[in-house]
Amino acid sequence: METILSLAIIVSTINNSAISAMPRRNATVQIKESKPRQPSPELSVLEYFEGTWRCQQPAAPASPNGVFTWIVKKDLNGFWYLGNAEETKSPDDSEPINSREFLGYDAASEKLVRSVVVGNGNFLNLTASSWQDGKLIWSGKVIDNGKSILLREEIIQNSPERFTATYFIPDENGNWKPVVNETCDRLR
């Protein structure tokens, strides 16, 4: 009997120790750092986009078939830019599309990152290096109706108040073919 009682006490002690060492479901993980984290200085590359933009697709026609407002602001303690695009309702388009996006910098990959969730079910995941000669090239994938499609977006900074963007997908030979172009003008 003493052996069974001793064994029960040992098992009980092991179980209590193991249980108390397990992380609690709602416990907050504390990471101690020697100094407060600061946003990456490379994030400043995206500062150009901060503000309110009026964008239209295609880029040049007098009566575009897609007009939207894109608002970009720095948020989340300065670590991210958040974008919000709302398409303007028109007689030709009774179901305007909207999107939400995160733009930031990934120090591990040393790339700008951009994730976009679109109101038509699409999802874009893109990366870029930096501006070169007034051009920023995003590349990655768009998930469209369950299909993963390679995507490239070239943004050309025409002025501090205007940029043009062209979206490309690969053709059957793997060459980039333009599929959509847009112009965006800064409103504020």
Number of continuous helical runs: 1
What is the H level of CATH, i.e. the homologous superfamily? Answer: Calycin beta-barrel core domain
Number of DSSP-assigned strands: 10
Please identify the top-level CATH class: Mainly Beta
Beta-strand fraction estimate: over 45%
For the biggest sheet, the summary is:
10 strands, antiparallel, barrel
State the shape.
globular
Rounded mean pLDDT is 83
Taking Cα atoms only, what radius of gyration do you get, to the nearest Å?
Answer: 25 Å
CATH architecture: Beta Barrel
Percent of residues in helices comes to: 10-25%
Give the topology string: H per helix, E per strand.
HEEEEEEEEEE
Question: Any low-confidence stretches, pLDDT <50, length ≥5?
Answer: 1-20
Class by helix and strand content?
mainly beta
